[in-house]
Amino acid sequence: MPFAAVNGTEIHYRIDGAQHSNAPWLVLSNSLGSDLSMWTPQVEAFSGHFRVLRYDTRGHGHSAVPAGPYTVEGWTGDVIGLLDLLQIERAHFCGVSMGGLTGIGLAARYPKRIDRVVLCNTAAKIGSPEVWVPRAARARNEGMLALADAVLPRWFTPACFEREPLMMAVIRDVFVHTDNEGYALNCEGLNAADLRAETASIAAPSLVISGTHDLAATPAQGQELAASIRGARYVELDASHISNIEQREVFTSTVLEFLTESR
């Protein structure tokens, strides 16, 4: 199980597609309350074209849970530190929700390191104190199991729960075993993060993906994000918040088409 000591934090990561030694790199970033396993539906297809680097965001999965506060600077710094350690000069980046916010920060602040960026089910400002403050407190005081029945129905449509019971069970298992403090610190980081003033500076080719039924990062927010980035494309899928799982086939083909097309 590979770990990297970057930005003062032990980050767990995996690489797929390493046999394509000259292929471009693609970094995948998880949502709040998940880990790198959320990209399982895409790994085989993506690794046919790229060297795929997945990692557990700090406070998630097997990565460390350093003391807070957690910030955009910390999230982006972890990615840049990982790229430096692995001697990756440039990479594409794709993130969902919190991972998408990280992508906004990377594209705006590290333009020489990011080639193309895919921002999924996200916004430059996600949520509000009314959401994040009580959620962080509940994670600390009651644990992740207490949050599961409130949060997970916002991730997927009822039809997806009915259609994919095994997948939903796996996702729930990851969620409830996310570190309580790690989750709370990331909630507080999201509460403080506001990148609306930075999106206009993004020059990387950008694709914004929203879910029609997403209540956490609404289609209106996705459209606003795409409109604020020069030349960005906008795609809306028949999904809720975790669109790469709920609409995995069309998500995968949409992202691959964007990342592999000629400029």
Please sum up the structure shown:
The chain is an alpha/beta fold and 263 residues long.
Question: What does the model show?
Answer:
The protein is an alpha/beta fold and 263 residues long. Helix content is 43%, strand content 17%. It has eleven helices and eight strands. Helix 2 (72-85) crosses helix 3 (98-109), helix 4 (129-142) packs antiparallel against helix 5 (144-151) and helix 4 (129-142) runs antiparallel to helix 8 (180-192). The longest helix has 14 residues, at 72-85.
Class from secondary-structure proportions? alpha/beta
Beta-strand residue percentage = 15-25%
Overall shape: it is globular
Sheet with the most strands, sense and barrel status: 8 strands, mixed
Based on the model shown, name its key terms.
263 residues, alpha/beta, Rossmann fold, eight-stranded mixed β-sheet, 8 strands, 43% helix
Describe the secondary-structure layout:
Elements: E1 3-6, E2 9-16, E3 25-29, H1 40-47, E4 51-55, H2 72-85, E5 91-96, H3 98-109, E6 114-120, H4 129-142, H5 144-151, H6 158-163, H7 165-176, H8 180-192, E7 206-211, H9 219-228, E8 233-237, H10 243-246, H11 248-260
Parallel strand pairs: 3-4, 3-5, 5-6, 6-7, 7-8
Antiparallel strand pairs: 1-2, 2-4
